[in-house]
């Protein structure tokens, strides 16, 4: 793993892996969504609205997965001081925030016909909303630290502290009474019929590949911006020296 | 199900939002990456 912390090695890997992940992710996601929209039968209780599952669940998975990536990268940065780990954490923030927002909005759209309400202040929805605010705070903090030349340890510590919300989101439907259904997929078990489960797993894989491609693209953009700044500074220094 | 709502309009709204959001995110991250790499390479060539 430490070998990939070398930016040159990382960039040579990311140059082919970024388009590969994006294209395979887009194809799998498109196939899974078409499957969910056109081929899956309506549910006995939820009717046609069950199809929202194939967008809502992968978005929730990636919203929580994005912050988990921030926390793991933050630990790697704080322990090993790899600058690439701090870049990876920053790169996961915007896609994580986008998928958290998609999860909340599609959940709200699903809630109206299923529960009769666009929003309820229960444990799952509220902790997911808190995650969205944490993402917004992290993005603002990381940008401020970069702009004002602060220590990158600050967003890393914020990323670690914010990770306390992830198990709260995961367990919220067990700990508190909620309109939201309890977990349907647990380790090695599923309460979902195979007709829904298989396209759901394909959608989760497709969205995850897409997420990986977006994070790599963000990392490459952040590295290129840093190299651009460094080269401009070096040229200015050489010009003033001549 | 409540009030005899048309279920398909909710499904279409959720799909439109999810697909548009995902495509915007993917397109924005790809374009900003290409732009940043072009700017960096332009400084090297100068």
Helix coverage percent of chain B: over 70%
Strand order of the largest sheet of chain A: 1-2
- Rg of chain B, Å, rounded: 20 Å
* Average pLDDT level of chain B: 90
Helix count from the secondary structure assignment of chain A: 7
Number of strands of chain B: 0
- The succession of helices and strands of chain B, N to C, reads H
Number of helical stretches of at least 4 residues of chain B: 1
Shape of chain A: elongated
**What pair of chains forms the biggest interface?**
A-B, 44 and 30 residues
* DSSP E strands of chain A, number: 2
- Show unreliable segments of chain B: none
From the alpha carbons, calculate the radius of gyration of chain A and give it in angstroms: 20 Å
> N-to-C SSE series of chain A?
HHHHHHEEH
Topology:
The complex is a heterodimer of chains A (242) and B (46).
Chain A: H1 7-39, H2 53-80, H3 83-115, H4 123-148, H5 153-162, H6 165-175, E1 185-186, E2 189-190, H7 194-241
Antiparallel strand pairs in A: 1-2
Helix pairs in contact in A: 1-7, 2-3, 2-4, 2-5, 2-7, 3-4, 3-7, 4-5, 4-6
Chain B: H1 7-45
Short description:
The complex is a heterodimer of chains A (242) and B (46). Chain A is an all-alpha fold. Chain A has helices at 7-39, 53-80, 83-115, 123-148, 153-162, 165-175, 194-241, and strands spanning 185-186, 189-190.
